[in-house]
Every structure is written in structure tokens, then in C-alpha cells.
Amino acid sequence: MSLRVVGFFTNAKYEALAGRMRASVEALGYPVTLYQMPHCDDPDIAWGSALRLKPVVVERCMQEHPKDDILYLDADTEMKAHPSLLLKGTCDVALNFIRPKHVHGCVMFFRGDKGRQYVKKWAESYELRPQFKLDEV
User: What totals of helices (H) and strands (E) does the chain contain, helices first?
Assistant: First the structure.
């Protein structure tokens, strides 16, 4: 399996940032898949709407590239070095926590069937529980 980076953007501002992210990833030799997703114009819910797109984007990429390990990056991030810990093949899902129970969702990793199962449950949790806190696992 090889590593593929995925991200998305919803408007011109984030499209430009996603271009910067793509360049940083490609400079390290990894393929990138970016998706343009619908933008929510309501400022009261735009942030939450964008967060709920993350599992949709990851799941879509996993379906389109079933042999690749998927590293999700937010559009406004840059890859500065090879993700050596992830490349060792010792995990199915890797998340960065900023404090207990609170995932820092700008960088997430998914591998194989267990990774796909996690992403599917993640997406379903948002559909089944719209009140679900978006930054808690």
C-alpha cells in the first residue's frame, strides 16, 4: 500500500490554501486528492457543516483508492516532513488529541478494513446524532 493525502475545500479562500497544501505534499512525493465540497453560507453553522464533511471526504477517497493508506489533512495545513511513524504500518487509525477526548482533526490517518470501518462509523455518528459534539470521539 502507498500513502495518499486527501483534503477538501468549500470556497476560493480554502481552494488557495488547499493548493499550498497540495504543493507541500507533492514536494515530498505523495499523491494528493482534493475535493470541492458545498459551501455553507450561514455563519452560525458553516464551521460545523465543514467538519461534518471530513468523514464523507475520507470515505469517498478510500472508495476511489482502496489500496492506499489515507492521510487526511485540512486545507490550511502543510506537510513539512515524511510521516515516518505512520509509514511503519503499525496502526489502522491515528488521531491527534489536543486534550482528552478532543481530537485535533486537521491530521488523521486511516488504513485498511479497520480504518474503513472507523470512517463509516464516524460518518454514521454524525447522521444519527446531529447534536453530537464534533470534536469529541
Answer: 5, 5
> pLDDT by residue (tens digit) across 1-19?
699 999 999 999 999 999 9
96, 107 Cβ separation under 8 angstroms:
yes
Longest dimension (CA), the chain: 42
Radius of gyration of the chain (CA): 14
Tell me which amino acid residue 69 is. D
Q: Are strands 68-73 and 93-99 parallel, antiparallel or unpaired?
A: unpaired
- Does this model's pTM top 0.90? no
In one letter, which amino acid is 124? E
Phi first, then psi, for residue 114 (nearest 5°) are: -70, -35
